[in-house]
Hints:
The chain is α+β, with helices and mostly antiparallel strands. The chain has four domains: 3-92, 3-Layer(aba) Sandwich (Rossmann fold); 122-187, ATP-grasp fold, A domain (Dna Ligase, domain 1, 2-Layer Sandwich), CATH 3.30.1490.20; 192-325, ATP-grasp fold, B domain (D-amino Acid Aminotransferase, Chain A, domain 1); 329-426, Glycinamide Ribonucleotide Synthetase, Chain A, domain 4, CATH 3.90.600. The protein is built from 14 helices and 25 strands. It has helices at 12-22, 37-42, 53-62, 73-78, 80-86, 100-103, 105-115, 128-138, 161-172, 241-261, 294-298, 306-315, 391-404, 418-426, and strands spanning 3-9, 27-34, 44-45, 67-70, 90-92, 122-125, 143-146, 155-156, 184-187, 193-202, 206-208, 213-214, 217-219, 223-226, 231-234, 267-277, 280-287, 302-303, 324-325, 329-337, 360-364, 367-370, 373-376, 380-388, 410-411. Strands 12, 15, 20, 21, 24 and 25 form a six-stranded antiparallel beta sheet that branches. Strands 3-2-1-4-5 form a five-stranded parallel beta sheet, with helices on both faces. It binds glycine. Residues 214, 229, 287, 291-292, 294 line the site of glycine (GLY).
Amino acid sequence: xxxxxxxxxxxxxxxxxxxxxxxxxxxxxxxxxxxxxxxxxxxxxxxxxxxxxxxxxxxxxxxxxxxxxxxxxxxxxxxxxxxxxxxxxxxxxxxxxxxxxxxxxxxxxxxxxxxxxxxxxxxxxxxxxxxxxxxxxxxxxxxxxxxxxxxxxxxxxxxxxxxxxxxxxxxxxxxxxxxxxxxxxxxxxxxxxxxxxxxxxxxxxxxxxxxxxxxxxxxxxxxxxxxxxxxxxxxxxxxxxxxxxxxxxxxxxxxxxxxxxxxxxxxxxxxxxxxxxxxxxxxxxxxxxxxxxxxxxxxxxxxxxxxxxxxxxxxxxxxxxxxxxxxxxxxxxxxxxxxxxxxxxxxxxxxxxxxxxxxxxxxxxxxxxxxxxxxxxxxxxxxxxxxxxxxxxxxxxxxxxxxxxxxxxxxxxxxxxxxxxxxxxxx
Length: 427
Ligand code: GLY
């Protein structure tokens, strides 16, 4: 029989999902909407935008799609899953209502508060003047977050009070992210080590994936502007199996139980951005989707067939055996266009992709296919990911491969996973 799969999205995350699904002996045909140059080389791209709910429903009908995997948050918020499930089609992703865990930070924080999930203290404002008065009265800086979806630009981490006031103005007076900042949260700044934990959720059960770390700043040593992610690795040595179990019990399960109790069960990949503190983990954010670049470093570590697990999450019958992992570890480095996340040039030939070492994968996020190969077409052009027996091995392998790839203006961070290796040498 075989399973027809549709993957919604355009990035390196969706390339990784497509690559993994194609390894399943159960997959029959794999379509991407709209996909990218690299998914077009291994699957069938169909030019339907990710938020075109009608178009995706039509495509699912025409191609007899058995399972749709929803990548970006915009598609979740647009109601792609609601539509597909209303016509009886399986979809891996939450409904728009359950996806409010990402599309409204106020919703997520109040839900966490209600069910006792640890998260930094916060206050909500609809007026800039009231928010600024609060900061002055408290006499310290706060993280400033827009309530709604803001394409990665909805969170500012100021260093002092003037920067906090400026951030409030940026969101509420200059309207830098529009209506997403009709409500703004001021969140307590907390120190600790950050980790991303993604889990498959079937409405009731939570099956965690292996943890990962991502690097959001553009430059080495976490300097420079925030980006969509410059690399990552899995697993972080500081986040043990016990920590994963504790996070499932104290973070994921209460949230999943509450969403079910409200009549909006969560199905799909649930991503918690956690910070590890001496008192335990706290939640910095939830995402109602697979992470990018976490997915690119996690999926190569997954052994066995991914498709039954994805189907089980979508259908509501996950079991603890649904996911199994190899002992190999991974390091991923994003090769970006010079200037990203600001202005950058595109259209440059990408050389060297055929010269990667074994067990190194190039997931495309910003390329187009040209007669002579791929050309750059975005800021985060490729995520190179290496598997290795140790993080040091994977790191060496990915950086050696990065030296074999080239395009005009190629830039990347040199310190991905370095802190883990330094820490393991020191201990
Ligand atoms: N890695 C951050 C994100 O996917 O939003």
